Amino acid sequence: MLSQHFTPAHWWIAACLSGLALAAAVASLPSQPRSRLIAGATVVLVTAFYCVARGRGEGTEQALQLYILGTLPLAILRWVFGGWLRRQSELARAGQPPQEVKGRHTALFMGAFVAVVAAIAVLL
User: Fold this and answer.
1) Do 13 and 61 touch, CB atoms closer than 8 A?
2) Per-residue pLDDT at 119
3) What are the TM regions of this chain, as residue ranges (predicted)?
4) What is the mean pLDDT, run by run of 10 residues, along the chain of 124 residues?
5) Residue 3 domain-assigned?
6) Domain count, the chain
7) Which of the 8 DSSP states describes residue 57?
8) In this structure, is residue 114 part of a structural domain?
């Protein structure tokens, strides 16, 4: 565990960075600038709401750890599968139908998701 020495302030910083990473990942998905802004702002607002709702008190560190464990893998997987998502966007812009998502694609994504979550959980 790399985070044994973390104080509550460290957890807040890590949660904010994780939320911003997810906001950047989500904002990169839409093709229209307005949609990108809305997507990124939505994640930032949800992050702010979560942080305000949890406040400070008993269980805050665990809540922040769970938040990080939920957001960081999605941001990492957006980077890992960026090439595939880019190809799908290019097909859509060219007016062609997107590639069909097959069982192996789903299995690959789920396996990668479990691996990333497990790795982050071990590091937390």
Assistant:
1) no
2) 85
3) 12-30, 37-55, 67-85, 106-123
4) 77 86 86 85 81 70 84 88 86 86 86 87 79
5) no
6) 1
7) S
8) yes
At CB < 8 A and 24+ separation, what contacts does 20-27 make?
20/44, 20/47, 21/71, 21/72, 21/75, 22/47, 22/71, 22/72, 22/74, 22/75, 23/47, 24/75, 25/74, 25/75, 25/78, 25/79, 26/78
Q: Is the residue at 16 inside a domain? A: yes
Domain region containing 86: 8-123
CB atoms within 10 A of CB 25: 21
Query: Which position has the token pair 């957006």?
Result: 78
Q: What is the 3-state secondary structure (H, E, C) of 76-112?
A: HHHHHCHHHHHHHHHHHHCCCCCCCCCHHHHHHHHHH
Query: Does 69 fall in a domain?
Result: yes
